Amino acid sequence: MSYLRKRSMEFLKSFEVPAKNPSEEAQRRWREAVGTLVKNRRRRFRMVPDLDKRSQAENERRKTQEKLRIALFVQKAALQFIDAARRTEQRTYVLPEIARRCGFSISAEELATIVRRHDSKGLRLHSGVEGIARKVSVSLTDGVKSDDTGLRAEVYGANHYTEKPPRTFWMYLWDASQDMTLMLLAFCAAISIAIGLATEGWPTGMYDGVGIMLTIFLVIMITAASDYKQSLQFRDLDTEKKKIDVQVTRDGYRQKVSIHDIVVGDIVHLSIGDQVPADGLFIDGYSFVIDESSLSGESEPVHVSTANRFLLGGTKVQDGSARMLVTAVGMRTEWGDLMETLSQGGEDETPLQVKLNGVATIIGKIGLAFAVLTFAVLMARFLLGKANAPGGLLRWRMEDALSVLNFFAVAVTIIVVAVPEGLPLAVTLSLAFAMKKLMQERALVRHLSACETMGSASCICTDKTGTLTTNHMVVEKFWASGATQTVSTAKGFDQLAASVSATFSKVLLEGVFHCSGSEVVRAKDGKTTVMGTPTETAILEFGLAVEKRTNIEHAGAQKLKVEPFNSVKKTMAVVVASPNAAGRPRAFLKGASEVVLRRCSLVLDGSGNVEKLTEAKAKRVSSAIDAFACEALRTLCLAYQDVDGGSDIPSGDGYTLIAVFGIKDPLRPGVREAVKTCHAAGINVRMVTGDNINTAKAIARECGILTEDGVAIEGPEFRQKNPDEMRELIPKIQVMARSLPLDKHTLVTNLRAMFDEVVAVTGDGTNDAPALHEADIGLAMGIAGTEVAKENADVIIMDDNFSTIINVAKWGRSVYINIQKFVQFQLTVNVVALMVNFISASFTGSAPLTIVQLLWVNLIMDTLGALALAMEPPNDAMMQRPPVGRGDNFITKVMWRNIIGQSIYQLFVLGVLLLRGKRLLQMDDGQLNTFVFNTFVFCQVFNEVNSREMEKINVFSGIFSSWIFSAVVGATAAFQVIIVELLGTFAGTVHLSGRLWLVSVLVGSVSLVIGAILKCIPVASSSRPSDHRDGYQPIPTGPNAV
After folding, report:
1. Pick from 622, 631, 563, 569: which is nearest to 595 by CA?
2. Half-sphere exposure in the Cβ direction for 614 (13 Å, CA)
3. Exposed / middle / buried, residue 58 (Cβ in 10 Å: 0-12, 13-18, 19+)
4. Cβ 541 vs Cβ 530: under 8 Å
5. Which listed residue, of 82, 217, 669, 910, carries a Cα 20 to 30 Å from 278's Cα?
6. Signal peptide span per the entry (predicted)?
7. Which range, of 13-22, 144-153, 762-771, averages the lowest pLDDT?
């Protein structure tokens, strides 16, 4: 026994793959280990990527990228030679009549070619961006008219890419029919009909064969319907994944539209982390840098400006901001060509799918052995009986051939039952159900494995702003000229307005409105709104309020240079031609309080005069900053410096401090409870933020993250630690403040490598992409997150809410536990069905269950069992146990206890019925076989109920919360009555009296009692105390356990 167990464990090692980015070697290894013992390869591997197709698609993608790279770099390097060569042969473009009638004077092909080829000469021939805008009838200020978008899509195309047509129901029906064992049974049924008609005549001779045919048809239809419904859920999720909103100017107003609604002529606003939605031309912007690696494969950033205006769809904004004129959309872009190859080959399989493929393979081999043994025993007994009969082995009749055919069909049916083809597919079913429900709960799962892995998460590294807090920011307090004012009240604002001069207000407003990555826009309804990040929005709204109170409006100024906010420097800066400095250049600096304060040597007083920032004054400013931070306010400083000549941003000191902002970002409702839930579930929560450490500690204490024995550390200090110091420090870290994205990446890497933690990490910025990619589960924010962050994430939290992350963890645990329930149920049916058929064949010379009955049992335990058990919703009790470790066995000791206990009971009952049933219940052979079949089915029905809880005695708790479970169990019982009472001719059953029905149900229901007794037997936990480094001990098993 130990030898078999050892060999099984060695075999199952081939079925271990990482949850993220598995190697092709690991993927091929488990496919080879599965071998040929697969009933239906088309269905079994439908949700598994075709590695050969994927390899072909990758080669195609590389070829496309290589062509594009050559086109881009050769054209840039030798543009003058290309221009010279083209002077003699200019291509002529024909303007379609529909474009002419609509007022356009350039064709879609010519527009697309100019950008694709980076054709500077062609752009100059059309008088630059302004000329192109005129030819597509659009104002660079007001954008396109909303009423014209349909017409533009008709002339220039829509922003959609060619996709593979979705699979129809008939395709799934065809896949389901490719089961080799069902084909063999259908062949046997056809021969059975032929022999039956020849020996017994019409219609009696065809009943057995037709019964098998009808049952096969039923199995195929139910399987196909289940698979098709599952595909519809994935299709909806794929549609949701492709939803990207972009900001455009239309009808003179800034607004958000779907990326699929972009048309030629749209004025698109781009900023850091955005995906360029289509091909286009740069209009204006600052420090604009593009990452073209997704398109050309080149990682070198491309600077886009008036000297190089060409922008290609699918590329990412690495730095700066800009406006773009869209010139080509959809399949007329290079990205459109590339998109056709990006989705080829399917999504990577999940670790649980692979594990269950291994389990199914082992069970299949055992089942095949039992099928061969059963056939051998039946044939041996048949031949022995025939040898002793008159005529011996030389005399064969049609009935003998029918008996041998039936033996073969029974053996094939045993393989049908024994090979649990539905195990790996049950994972997909459960994941599809969980992903659909999570979508309703504002979490979009981008990768299947993430939902599964999140159930094992032992650590969550979360941002503060917008995740733990509401992200609805307002300036609560304001420090200027040595005094602090509470500006969230009307009285405080009046005091501020009275304490500062007009000169001070002008400088303040100039800095507030010009040193900003956001902008104030007027909507169609006339209301003024701020478009940008919550922090910038709070400061601009404060500026608007100052303008209203002081009747001083900020003066317009030309921006000479912009340095967008940088998460490494933690500042942003701008140089403007300042009206308050007689048009001379003036630099404004805004960012992290201590960073800006260190660069200030002067301070502006309330009268607008500049004073020296002495050490004593600097200490008072620092005290004000600390006071703000201790009240959980986010602090920012604003400063300025006049620039002598040029427009370069000063890199050193010498700035004049204007003000300190204390921004309030309240804690989200329910966050404290969510953190408490994490702790109860054995999940350690760590806050990683760029904010001041005092602000971070105040928020962390408020939401329950920072405890008495926890450590709060700043990023610079963390970076100086050596590996040994980190090993000792990291388990204690609960808050990391003033951190860089690199610090988050280092923390995640060490948590995984040093402590084998399953780490989930949140991120919203472009620089968070490495940490999101490195973590076991990357969680991007749906509202505040950039497209780059979302693309590198596994799950998108649509409402940016920490409580939603807990829902993802809960559903992840639900998937894992539901699959365990289904495996426990299916293995019990497998063991009993194999043993009953083999023992009965050995002792009686015939199988107790007919082919039709065995197919019905297979349907109960496979498709219907998966529907019932794999789609149960989670409950709060799931978050009161530690997470499953990386190396934990999927089939636990608790499951083996339940499987073995239930199997022994069912085998004992069925054995007694087969050997003594006729005498005990006064039945004939026909009634006995029907009664055994009926009892066996009801044992499975009640065991299905039993499997809802693997450790708790009360298996009825929340049973009606899953209507699917109730419906499946009810339908199974109802159809069992129909099979026995109405379809006896086809199913080989006879009528049972009410007494026998009652006995069948009672015998089956004893499974519930047996289950309760088994759950009182203690089982040693396989978890080691060292596995739980967060101080959360495993919850004991037993009848009161979850």
Report:
1. 569
2. 4
3. middle
4. yes
5. 82
6. none
7. 13-22
The stretch 69-74 carries a mean pLDDT of 61
First vs last Cα of the chain: how many Å apart?
A: 31
Provide the annotated active-site residues.
463
Task: For residues 845 and 384, give the distance between their C-alpha atoms in angstroms, rounded to a whole number.
Answer: 11
| Paired residues of 713 in beta bridges | 736
**Whole-angstrom Cα distance, residue 411 to residue 201?**
26
Contact predicate 764/786, CB 8 Å: yes
Which one, of 860, 836, 980, 858, lies nearest residue 909 by Cα? Answer: 836
How wide is the angle at C-alpha 873 spanned by C-alphas 869 and 876, nearest 5°? 125
C-alpha separations of 710 from 332, 561, 736, 760 in Å = 56, 44, 11, 20
How far apart are the C-alpha atoms of 1039 and 952, rounded to whole Å? 5
Given a contact cutoff of 8 angstroms between Cβ atoms, the answer to whether 642 and 459 are in contact is: no
Q: When comparing pLDDT for 884 and 588, which is higher?
A: 588
Beta bridge partners of 303: 289
> Collapsing DSSP states into helix, strand and coil, what is residue 918?
helix
Buried b (16+ CB within 10 A) or exposed e, 844-857: eebbbbbbbbbbbb
**Is the peptide bond prior to 848 cis by the omega test (within 30 degrees of 0)?**
no
Across the range 598-620, mean pLDDT stands at 91
Alpha carbon distance 337, 314 (integer Å): 11
Is the pLDDT at 1020 greater than 80? The verdict is no
Poorest-pLDDT segment among 80-84, 614-618, 910-914: 80-84
**Which is it for strands 711-714 and 733-737: parallel, antiparallel or unpaired?**
parallel
Q: How far is CA 247 from CA 255, 256, 266, 268, 997, in A?
A: 6, 4, 10, 6, 68
When pLDDT is cut at 50, 70 and 90, the band that residue 1028 belongs to is very low
Q: Which residues contact 952 (CB under 8 A, 6 or more apart)?
A: 1015, 1039, 1040, 1041, 1042
pLDDT of residue 202: 75
968 token code pair: 């499946």
- Tell me if 465 sits within 8 A of 691, measured CB to CB: yes
Residue 1003: closest CA among 922, 860, 865, 906: 906
Which pairing describes strands 267-271 and 600-604: parallel, antiparallel, or unpaired?
unpaired
Phi-psi group of 35: left, alpha or beta (phi > 0 → left; psi -120 to 50 → alpha; rest → beta): left
Instruction: Indicate the pTM of the whole model.
Output: 0.81
Site of tokens 């069925």: 910
- Which helix (H) or strand (E) segment holds residue 310: the answer is strand 310-311
Give the residue carrying structure tokens 């329930």: 821
3-state secondary structure of 464: coil
Average pLDDT rounded to a whole number, residues 679-697:
91
- What value does the mean pLDDT take over residues 8-32? 72
**832-871 pLDDT, tens per residue?**
888 887 777 777 767 777 778 877 887 777 778 878 888 8
How many CB atoms neighbour CB 5 within 10 A?
A: 9
Instruction: Write out the two tokens for 700.
Output: 């962390």
Q: Which two structure tokens, joined as six digits, stand for 646?
A: 């040029």
Contact (CB, 8 A) for 434 and 237: no
Q: Rounded to whole angstroms, what are the CA distances from 674 to 684, 695, 764, 774, 810?
A: 12, 20, 20, 25, 11
Task: State how far the Cα of 584 lies from the Cα of 231, in Å rounded to an integer.
Answer: 64
Give the containing element (helix H, strand E) for 475: strand 474-480
Q: Using alpha carbons, select from 446, 438, 440, 357 the residue that is nearest to residue 813.
A: 438
Q: Are 1014 and 893 in contact (CB under 8 A)?
A: no
CB neighbours of residue 52 within 10 Å: 9
Residues 6+ apart with CB under 8 A from 638: 508, 511, 512, 515, 588, 589, 590, 596, 657, 658, 659, 660, 661
CB atoms within 10 A of CB 169: 14
Q: What is the pLDDT of residues 777-806, one digit of tens each?
A: 999 888 888 888 888 888 999 888 888 999
Radius of gyration of the chain (CA): 36
